[in-house]
Amino acid sequence: MNNSIKKIVIVGGGTAGWMAAASLAKYVNNSAEICLIESSDIATVGVGEATLPNIVQFNRNLGIDETAFIKATQATFKLGIQFENWHPQNKQFFHPFADYGLKIDQVDFHHYLYRAQQTECSSQLADFSFACQLAKQYKFAQPHANPSTPLADYAYAYHFDAGLYGQFLKKHSINAGVNHLIGTIEQVNLHPDTGFINNVALTDGQIVEGELFIDCSGFEGLLIEKALHTGYEDWSHWLFCDSALAVQTTRVNPPEPFTRSIAQSAGWQWHIPLQHRSGNGYIYSSRFESDEQAKALLQTNINGEPLGEIRKITFKPGRRKQIWHKNCFALGLASGFLEPLESTSISLVQTAIAKLLTFFPDCSFNQADINEVNRLHNLELENISDFLILHYKLSARCDTPFWQACQNMAIPESLQHKIDLFKSRGHIAMYDQESFEHASWLTFYDAYQLKPRRLDPRAWVVPEAMLLQKLQQIQNSISEATIPVISHQAFITKHCAAKPLPQPA
Fold first, then answer.
1. Reading across the β-sheet that carries 33-38, which strands appear in turn?
2. What CATH topology corresponds to 7-49+161-237+317-365?
3. How does pLDDT run across 327-349, given as a tens digit for each residue?
4. What residue ranges do the domains of the chain occupy?
5. Which ranges in 206-324 belong to alpha helices (H)?
6. Interval 254-295: pLDDT, tens
7. 270 and 50 in contact (C-beta within 8 Å)?
């Protein structure tokens, strides 16, 4: 106990900083001092407004009341992502946070569906997902804690105002004892022998000492890179998008219970519905489109009145070679950034925090612990990267140089193996530290018409008439279950409507 961490310093606020502060405050439970240094001179990126389902449990673990959180952040619910114009143009498909159908005799459902589609069955994969059918009808209901059938088992996430979420967690963290310090770091001072961070010096002369430093300073990586020089792996040879334009607009339609991802000439456009406004942006590759072209495209394809100027964000897709080095742990954009295609940014903050808490150090900073966290995090990033690359590589779009380059690029061996295995026999390979489950990979294989040459032989044992009857029963059960569900807007109005925010003068 004498060797335990007594002082934790978090550099940077924003979503990552306050998520770390809230989590660490709960974990150390007053056994260590936590200080968060936030500069009033540095703006946060703050466009990460769509999430994955693990955010629900993250908030619960902090003891946050869901309704209070939703009202405070102007949040809406998210059943998944609707992909438009990805494969091919003028078509759309839905990526749900849910499975499809039911296993039969331990054989994955899609083998039976693909067998049935070879005969008279015209049903599609989305017909066998409750979440897909709710989204199609713009409906929402929270899943039952103990569903009577696996067909009713699905998850949800949120869309929220990232700035308001940071403020919400800030209040929560300060109430939990976190010391909030406003200041700008002028210098990071290292121990002359160990190279560990001793302290940070602020421009006003204050010296803030600590034993564990959490770098939430954004792309700059003030501690992990500028001070400790851990290095960065550039993945732009796989992920071409390196620029983003973002703008908030008034909301003109009831909020959809999903994020929209709309493929464009050199990337894709997002639409995120909140209670008080909409979030919009265009992620694109500067190799294939100029900023002026991108801005014109975004302005042409948004609804509602802009609530501010269009913001430009540039980034280098990739990862920090180590997110934990010596006594510094990097979170959020300081640890790297792929792109927001599947809303992984906030999720990666959560999973990194979870790894830190699992291997929380004492002042000896055991290198085996540090190595394991870096290993697990790197595996997680590689798997996410494979999933994102899949979106581009298998798209049938070839109408612009960007999409042609996506189809022609070399891909990681791990992803090629997954594709080849599904092509061969419909098997979906899953690796350690996967962020996206079996059904997510199936969504894209199916939407991109990657049909296997062979199916599981066991799927042919069931008599055809019985199989078709079973599929129809499943489809009917899902259709009937959606009938009493109310609209997404009606659910929000009934349970968690936020007060309108004051409009800027």
1. 179-182, 33-38, 7-11, 212-215, 328-330, 324-325
2. FAD/NAD(P)-binding domain (3.50.50)
3. 999 999 999 999 999 999 999 99
4. 7-49+161-237+317-365
5. 291-300
6. 999 999 999 999 999 999 999 999 999 999 999 999 999 999
7. yes
The first and second tokens of residue 369, run together, are 């612990």
Whole-number Å distance between alpha carbons of 461 and 357: 48
Q: What is the pLDDT of residue 87?
A: 85
Output the CA–CA distances (angstroms, integers) from residue 301 to 250, 268, 294, 361, in the order listed: 14, 11, 11, 49
285 sits in the region (left: phi over 0; alpha: psi -120 to 50; else beta) called beta
Q: pTM value?
A: 0.95
Q: What is the dihedral of CA 63, 335, 323, 259, to 10 degrees?
A: 50
- Closest listed residue to residue 313, CA positions, set 43, 8, 28: 43
DSSP string, 82-128: EEESSSSTT-EEEEESB--S--BTTB-HHHHHHHHHTTT----GGGG
**What amino acid positions are annotated as catalytic residues?**
78
Q: Residue 2 carries which DSSP code?
A: T
| H/E element, 135 | helix 130-136
Burial of 473 (0-12, 13-18, 19+ CB in 10 A): exposed
C-alpha separations of 292 from 266, 296, 399, 400 in Å: 13, 6, 20, 17
For the chain, what percentages of helix, strand and coil (3-state, to nearest 5) are there?
40, 20, 40
Could you tell me how far CA 355 lies from the centroid of its own chain?
Answer: 17
Sign of the alpha-carbon dihedral angle for 302, 305, 307, 309:
positive
Average pLDDT score over residue span 95-104: 94
> Shortest CA distance to 223 belongs to which of 186, 184, 188, 192?
188
Pairing of the two strands 243-249 and 232-234: unpaired
